[in-house]
Amino acid sequence: YFYDNGPSRTNGNMALFSISEDTPVGTQIYILNGTDPEGDPVRYGLTFEMGSKEYFRVDSKSGNVTLIQELDREKQHEISALVSITDGRNKVVETVRVFVTDVNDEPPEFQNLPFIIDIPEDTAPGSSIYKVQAVDRDMGSGGSVSYYLQTSPFAKFTIDGNSGILRVKPGETLDYETTPTHFVTVVAKDGGGKYKGKHQVLTSTATMTINVLDAQDMPPSFIGTPYFGYVYEVSVPGSEIFTVYAKDGDQGNPNPIHYSIMNGSDGVMLLFFSVGPNNQLQDYDVTTVTVRVVDLNNHPPTFYGENGPQNKFEVTMYEHPPPGEILRGFKITVNDSDQGANAKFKLRLVGPSRVLRVVPQTVLNEAQVTIIVEDTSGIDYEKGPTLYFKLLAVEIDTPERFSATADIVINLLDTNDNIPKFTSEYYIARVPENSLGGSSVVSVTANDPDSGPWGEVKYTIYGSGSDLFAIQPSSGLISTQPWTSLDAEVRSKYNFYVKAEDSEGKYSLSEVFVTVLDMNDHSPAFDEKLLEKTMIIGIPVRVEAVDEDAESPNNVIEYSIMTADPDNAFDINAETGDIKLKPYIKSMEIVQNITKQKHCKWSLVVQARDRGSPSFSTTAVVNIDITEATPLKGPMAAFLLKSRDNPMKALGMVTVIISLLVGVTVLISTAMYMRNSKSNRIMPARRIIKRRPRDQQPWNVNMPVVRFINPADKFRVLNQEGSHQRGTSSPRPKPPLPSAPPPPSNARSNERPRAVPTISGVLASKGSKKAKSNRRKEGNVSSALVSELKMKLEQKIIESNQGYY
């Protein structure tokens, strides 16, 4: 069921709902609202009777009702519709009436149109002559009507605003001969009302035609005077020339008219008289008729110069006159000897579009021709030293269409109105390096279309990098300086500006980009001709050469092994220079089987070749010590292994680590000392570290001097814990624990000495024997690497010292 919320609400069943007729189409005007007792969702519907116009549409889900047709209360003030609500099984349909409320949208409408009134011209002033009636279909104040006349300074009528009665204005008289018909505009105005939220007053107008009936009070007269007749010069006697017309002044009841010619040599006097009853002459009128002999169109237009007819006009002037300037060098007159329409013709210029225009464009009989500049860019010496136009005069409104033509020639004088312009905004040049001084780089070109010295261009260059180049001032050829040799390895890109200037200093700029092409003029180079490398089996060593050429492929290096001793033992990466043993060489035993020597030091010749054309190469002898080490563990061992070719890096890292350890020890000792100095007594929970017996051996560190005969021996380290490794060494005594510091000096003499608390610790390994063995091996390898780094460091220091002598 629907909710019945009453006619004043905008939701419910729409019963007795009112809507204003000025509601815009598309407006949501109502919401159908209802419910289902079982709580099922409901849908809404809205239909109209068959054949009636549908004004509304409803959204079936939301119930929103929208206006879809314009309303007009004056045509339909009530709308009947069927609204429905359904839950899908049951449906309720109700018939509702929607009332359309009025707004002031209808103007007053005059009745009995058109208004045509006939009144005698002797009607007395103030007399009523007609009643105007208008109806407004709106309701209320919008339906009331009042009247008034549109004001006029010659108004002879007035109207009553309420009744609409039209009267002759008091003090005014009618005159048929002066104004036989009056047109009076009547305005009907309603009382105003609301329309779309605003107050609106509507009006209507109607024109009344008031015909004044004539009374016999006026004399006769000619119509259309003065009279002029035309006769062609070739007309034959008896040809009709002209017709005159006269009428009696009282047109309501005119008398018969008779015409006669009186006399006249220069003109013809025409007598008009009217005949009254009994054929008596009542009144008359006289006028003059002028007859003109008309010339035939038998002459074409003709152009004249200062000396008579002329068909060519020529002038010399400078280029680019300002727009609107009159070309006063031309003295042109155009004439057509015919008369009237036969002498009417048009002037126009034919030539480059919109450069010049001619004044006047339309001529009757004769005119002075004026030529005016319209587009100054078209009067350009560089586009052409001479301009040609055709001046045409063509008759209009004549069947013969006679015409005339004259040539307009303008000789131009040049001015310096252009700047030199380069043929390109920028120039790109490529020059091989090491070219001879004075070699050509690029030729720049700038054009100045001006003539004479104004068109001569001088070239100069400036900017960063331009000091290495020179330019021919007249030709624009850019070359390197005689003393310059360009080197791509030093600088491969140059850019600078080139300036083109005419004789008056007008100039333009362009930019030059020079690329020095790299030539393969450097060979790859190793740091040394003899390279010493140490290789652990399974880990490659690297050789590196440098090519000082600037670009690829000239500086791209490929590595290869030329010779090796022993042969077929090494592979090399052609791109990186990494040298490694053949895959089948996996242990020192295989190495010793190959070389049959103990020191395991092999040599090979490595070639570094660039990819340039032609290609250059260089070689170096690489001595490689082959050794074997157990697998490395721990970050320190891995770092030392990677740094075996750079001892300074390893020494620096060791120095940093030792400095950090010393700093941490100082901080801990300082903190402990400050904490103990602030305590007044020793806490029982602290451990007391007693001094060790006097017979304990001091902690001595002996650095044995190791000399290697075989290069591989540098990786053989002595075992401090047993003799299962290669070589023997005396066992290292375990160092004693550090003794406790002495008690504070401010201790009282009557107090017994107290032990000073300190930090103690014991290193104990909980790992298996295998882990201990691995740690010992790792320590052996680290010791070997340290020894090797020490030797290389000493060698670097000796070589550096030799450089100072």
From TrEMBL:
List every stretch annotated Disordered.
Answer: 721-783
Report the transmembrane regions from the record.
650-673
Asked whether the keyword Repeat is assigned, the reply is yes
GO MF terms, alphabetically ordered: calcium ion binding
Look up and give the membrane topology term: Single-pass membrane protein
Q: Which domain of life is it from?
A: Eukaryota
Query: What segments bear the compositional bias annotation Pro residues?
Result: 732-745
Q: Name one GO cellular component term.
A: plasma membrane
- An individual GO BP term: anatomical structure morphogenesis
Domain Cadherin span(s) in chain numbering: 17-110, 111-222, 309-422, 423-526, 528-637
Major location (coarse): membrane
User: What's one Pfam family the UniProt record gives for this protein?
Assistant: Cadherin
Q: What are the entry keywords?
A: Calcium, Cell adhesion, Membrane, Receptor, Repeat, Signal, Transmembrane, Transmembrane helix
Instruction: Please state where this protein is localized.
Output: Membrane
Q: What is the protein name stated in its UniProt record?
A: Photoreceptor cadherin
What is the source species? Answer: Sander lucioperca (Pike-perch)
